[in-house]
Each structure stands twice: as C-alpha cells, then as structure tokens.
Amino acid sequence: TDTGSQKDRMVAEEEWLRKWETGNIWFHKERGHPLLQKYLDVLLNGRSGLRIFFPLCGKAVEMKWLADMGHRVVGVEVSEKALKEFFVEHSLPFCEEPIPEISGAKKLQTTSGNIALYCCSIYDLSSSIVGKFDGVWDRGALVAVNPCDRQRYVSLMITLMEKNSSYLLVTVSYDPNKHKGPPFYVPESEIKSLFG
After folding, report:
1. Is 152 assigned a ligand-binding role in the annotation?
2. Is the confidence at residue 63, as pLDDT, over 50?
3. Residue 77 annotated as part of some ligand binding site
C-alpha cells in the first residue's frame, strides 16, 4: 500500500496542456481502451440511453462509440486542443458556448447534442452545471490527478453520480519507487477508502 515518493508529486495543469500542444500524448489510445469493451456490460448494466461521464476525457474515441450506441456523453478536459481534435477526427459538427458559472470555460457540443465536452478544470464542475450521471468511465483520471487531490476528486465524482450509477475505473499497478508518475500508483486499499 506504500505509494513511495509519489505522495508529494504535483503535476501542474500547464504540464498537461504542454503534453497536448507538443503531441506527447502517450496516454491516448487511438483504438479505444480494451477494458471498456471487456467490461461494457458492467458499465451499462442492461440499461440504454444513459448519461455517461468521461473525467479528464482528452479525445477518447470511446466517447463517440458510446454516443453512437444511443448514450449521452459528457466529458471534461483542460486542453481545448484535445477537445477540438476529437470533433475534427470524428467529423462531428460542433458548436461552442461559454459556461456562465465558470470564468473562461466553454462547452463544445455536437450539433445533435449527444456529446458535450467542457473545457475547464474538473474541479470547477458541479452537478448544478453538468447534472448527474448513470455511468462513469474513469480510464485515466484518478491515476492522473495529483495524489494530494484524490479525496477532492473522488468527493466530486460521488456528487456527480446517480443513485444506481456504475463506475468503471482503470488503475495501473507497479512499484511507485521506480516511476514518478503519472500515471500514479493508487493501491486498492486507497481506492476502497476513497470510494467507500
């Protein structure tokens, strides 16, 4: 359960923006994440027409995949470049509008309205802005947030979940003394204490 030297590691928002600007996006999966396909039934739980949240979404191809299945997708990402690339790469017409509650933030949304992506810090969101979700696909968010922000992140995620929500979480397991992160090592014991 030891997180080694990572517990004090901080990655600034600017560092993430720089990764997108320079194309250093090793964490992006062009073909989608195989674990979502494997555990899709767990996320959907036999339900259709869900609202599914993608925290720190980048330009995840799974957003279009789930929208094409009839679900409504909402994502959040600090990089406007990532969000615009998502729409362009999938040939999806979109519009932009400011988010009055969040200074400098904007929402990019397909003209059909089934995919809405918020360009802002995840910590600026609340259920009063984005609503609540039937499912969450967290394939790289918990392991990307700074270790000191995990409780804040999980507390927010819990407020965004409907009562019968499904939360699909991907983490990575390795010796945290040999890699400084991100992705950060989050021991299973900590996941259990964070989410209850």
Report:
1. no
2. yes
3. yes
Residue 122 annotated as binding site: yes
CA dist., res. 169 & res. 13, Å (int): 22
Residues in Cβ contact with 19 at an 8 Å cutoff, skipping those fewer than 6 apart: 25
State mean pLDDT over 18-34: 83
**What share of the chain in percent tops pLDDT 70?**
97
Task: Tell me if 18 is assigned to a ligand binding site.
Answer: yes
Residue 173 labelled as part of a binding site: no
Backbone angles phi, psi at 136, to 5 degrees: -130, 130
pLDDT at 186 over 60: yes
Edge-first strand listing for the sheet containing 115-119: 94-98, 106-110, 115-119, 72-77, 51-54, 133-138, 161-169
Question: If you average pLDDT over every residue of the chain, what do you get?
Answer: 92
Q: What is the pLDDT of residue 3?
A: 55
Is 19 labeled as ligand-binding?
Answer: yes
Q: Is 23 annotated as ligand-binding?
A: yes
Peptide bond preceding 98: is omega within 30 degrees of 0, i.e. cis?
A: no
Q: Is 1 annotated as a binding residue?
A: no
17 known ligand binder: yes
Percent of the chain having pLDDT more than 90?
78
Secondary structure (DSSP) of 55-117: TT-TT-THHHHHHHTT-EEEEEES-HHHHHHHHHHTT--EEEEE-TTSTT-EEEEETTSSEEE
